Amino acid sequence: MAMLRPLRLALASLAFLVPAPSWGGPGVAPISGADMDALPGPEDQFRWSVAEKTVAHRHFDLLFPSETIASGDHVLPLVKADKPISIGFDYDGRRLTIADYFARSNATGLLVLKGDRILFERYARGNGPDTHWASRSMAKSVTATLIGIALKEGKIHSLDDAVERYVPELADTRYGPVTLRQTLQMTSGMPDTEFPSALPLQACTVKRERGCFIRELKAIAAVDRPDYAKPGTRFSYLSADVIVNGLVLERATGMSPAQYLSSRIWRPFGMERDAYWNLEAEGGATFANSGIGATLRDYGRFGLFVMQGGRLGDGDMLLPADWAKDALTPSRASVIAGTPYGFNWWLNPPKSDAPGISHTYYARGSNGQLIVINPDERLVIVKWAVWDNDPAKPSGATAKDMDDALFDAIIKAAHGR
Fold it and tell me: Fewer CB within 10 Å, N side or C side of the chain?
């Protein structure tokens, strides 16, 4: 937590610069009076309490600049199963119910899909089917998927292209010769770990300053900084790599990531509600590593889209034929680091005898956000949470262990359904 102190101070110093939220948000339900009264300041995000996180995660479109991800008239129906699965699991020497899990893990939403059937759906802490919840870093997996679509369309020539081909402002930095494959795998070789390098990027969304991302990326990748690795040789989880990919996507397609996501997936696949994506500033670059707000079911639909290899209802395939193989193959560097990682997908399922667990992959976001995809069982699990920063309470690794036990039980309960 000590490493967060400089950003806390920096963000706090920006408080007087933060415009008052516009109480409407793009394409989402209006904020309630109770949430408006309890909405915390964006500059305080690294010290939000659980209660503040809960309200904030429902309204990132009001806390930070954002752009609408428009849905269309067609909606992919999700049908509730005649009988929901019964979920119970053993954890820490006790038999827990799903109610125990929600209480102990600070979960705020859980959806289990088997194909287009809803086997389980539950909300907590004031959330409901219309809630637009912050993706956090689950957005990284969305950005990677959009890169794949742009590759299939020929807007991106090759994943072996250098970043500087699409973002010439970075040509004179260490990002210039890094390939898109390397940024997708987070093997760019930049020396910074996620903290503190992501913190100035997050601060850009508080300052609402156009051009801030490019300036901070230049600082991260300055040629005179030490401790760089040869690109492709070292895995380091780094949100900056995904900010770069967001810029590449915008330059290659001529559309913002929100517009591209709407036109390629949200509308044609049949998402039910508009969503949003946070920006550095109104009209500025997209916070491509985070910042999507969508409903629980629409996150589930995105999981179905990916699980189907990018196939639309009319049979049109939006992703390259070999995309899944490439995206879900861990880089050698990530395997050496002990954290198998593909194209912004986590490939480290827990040890388990659950069906299909070895082929399961994950989109993860801070504070407990997850999309779990088990293609062998045709399962998509979406989970929201507000993990507690208090080290005396379940969070981080402890909550992840509880999640693993829960998902093991869910996969087994859904088998054969």
Answer: N
Phi, psi of 332 (to 5 degrees): -60, -40
Q: What is the pLDDT of residue 305?
A: 98
Helix (H, G, I), strand (E, B) or coil at 325: helix
Rounded Cα gap, residues 347 and 309, in angstroms? 17
pLDDT in tens, 186-217: 999 998 666 666 678 888 999 999 999 999 99
Could you tell me the two tokens for 253?
């397609």
Mean pLDDT in residue range 265-286? 98
Residue 95's CB is within 10 A of a number of other CB atoms, namely 9
Burial class (CB in 10 A: 0-12, 13-18, 19+), 352: middle
How many residues does the structure list for the chain? 417
Kindly state which CATH superfamily the domain 2-19+44-76+110-124+134-414 is placed in. DD-peptidase/beta-lactamase superfamily (3.40.710.10)
The answer to which of 135-144, 339-348, 392-401 has the lowest mean pLDDT is 392-401
Closest CA to 197 of 144, 166, 155, 238: 238
For residue 196, whether the previous peptide bond is cis, meaning omega lies within 30 degrees of 0, is yes
As beta bridge partners, residue 354 has none
Question: What is the token pair recorded at 174?
Answer: 């260490």
How much is the mean pLDDT over the chain?
91
Instruction: Identify the DSSP state of 264.
Output: I
pTM: 0.93
The structure tokens listed for 342 are 């593909």
Confidence of residue 158 (pLDDT cuts 50, 70, 90): very high
